[in-house]
Write a structure and sequence with these properties.
120 residues; 4-stranded antiparallel beta sheet; 7-stranded mixed beta sheet; mainly beta; 0% helix; single chain
């Protein structure tokens, strides 16, 4: 499995921005499909955004227009730029590496998670 390490979480006021980073081990990052999930207290883990190995992206409706997923294969890193943050974005955010089956993304390897708290 791929080892993933997230960073960049923290406390931010509503309307603010944060950028999460996730760095992967291994030498073949460029072929990985990557994603970000989140889990809020008392809720199920949900997909936030995914990016394929050729750069195609997909977003949950709740974050479209506010969040941007991107990748830098030279740094083996995937990013999640979060703008216009809302209190309901508060969650632990998890980076993952996965695959596709019938056009659906399935995470396989997970990072340890990073806490994002949006509060005034």
């Amino acid at each position: 499995q791929v080892r993933l390490v997230e960073s960049g979480g923290g406390l931010v006021q509503p309307g603010g921005s944060l950028r999460l980073s996730c760095t992967a081990s291994g030498s073949i990052f460029s072929i990985y499909h990557m994603g970000w999930y989140r889990q809020a207290p008392g809720k199920q883990r949900e997909v936030v955004a995914t990016i394929t190995n050729n750069g195609s992206t997909n977003y949950a409706d709740s974050v479209k227009g506010r969040f941007t997923i991107s990748r830098d294969n030279t740094k083996k890193t995937v990013y999640l730029q979060m703008n216009s943050l809302k209190p309901e974005d508060t969650a632990v955010y998890y980076c993952n590496e996965g695959g596709y089956y019938s056009r659906t993304y399935y995470p396989v390897s997970w990072g340890q998670g990073t806490q994002v708290t949006v509060s005034s």
